[in-house]
Amino acid sequence: MSSGRSRFPGPDRFEYLQALVTEFQDTDSTDAKEQVLANLANFSYDPGNMEDLRTLQVTELFLDMLTEESENLVEFGIGGLCNLSVDPACRDQILESDGIALVTGCLSSRREETVLSAIGTLMNLATGAGPRAGSSARERLTDPAVLQCMLRFSLSHSTRLRNLACVFLQDCCTPAQVERAQRQLQDCTQTALGIPLPQD
């Protein structure tokens, strides 16, 4: 699998990324789609590829994958979004495409990598949600149901999941929001958003 690092000069790299996107759109093979999507997710790790990936609408491609039945496609899609969401322009694309709901939906995955990438994406969106994002986006990122999920994840046996959830609660929420979510979670008899802890 490609490392995602810039092995090609600018024009050649764009053409290669464009070929990957075209292959993904043209193939009927699930295995091929998964391989191409994994490659695109790896390329999204390199800041030098951000502009090309935006031009090729890869952000939207990753978002589309979050509703697929294939857990691999969802995992690679949210992993790519997590990488892209460090870029302000990509964050705006995610927010403008109502991506918060799609990313939040990934918190219900039983795959730990998918959940970790979803939390990472939400953290990037929250820390970068400036005035352009609007108050509605910021409110959805710290919705009580999301915070209740983070509180549950903070009790996970997985060190990575536990630590990342704690960082989200500390860095993206106010103490008052966390306290309110804790009270609501104690009063709630149902699982927050129906979300189980990922299998360890």
Characterize the structure shown.
With 200 residues, the chain is mainly α. Helix content is 68%, strand content 0%. It has 12 helices and no strands. The protein has helices spanning 10-26, 30-43, 50-55, 58-65, 71-84, 88-96, 99-105, 112-127, 134-141, 144-153, 159-171, 175-187. Helix 4 runs antiparallel to helix 5 (71-84) and helix 10 (144-153) packs across helix 12 (175-187). The longest helix has 17 residues, at 10-26. The protein is elongated and about 55 Å long. It starts with 9 loop residues before the first helix and ends in a 13-residue tail after the last helix. 40% of the residues are buried. Residues 1-6 have low confidence and may be disordered.
In terms of topology, how is this protein built?
Layout: H1 10-26, H2 30-43, H3 50-55, H4 58-65, H5 71-84, H6 88-96, H7 99-105, H8 112-127, H9 134-141, H10 144-153, H11 159-171, H12 175-187
Helix pairs in contact: 1-2, 2-5, 4-5, 5-8, 8-11, 10-11, 10-12
Strand content: under 5%
Distance between the termini: 25 Å
Q: Gyration radius, to the nearest Å?
A: 17 Å
Number of helices: 12
Kindly state the mean pLDDT as a whole number? 87
Overall 3D geometry? elongated
User: Poorly predicted ranges (pLDDT <50, ≥5 residues)?
Assistant: 1-6
Largest β sheet strand count, sense and barrel closure: none
Order of helices and strands: HHHHHHHHHHHH
What percent of the residues sit in helical stretches (DSSP H or I)? 55-70%
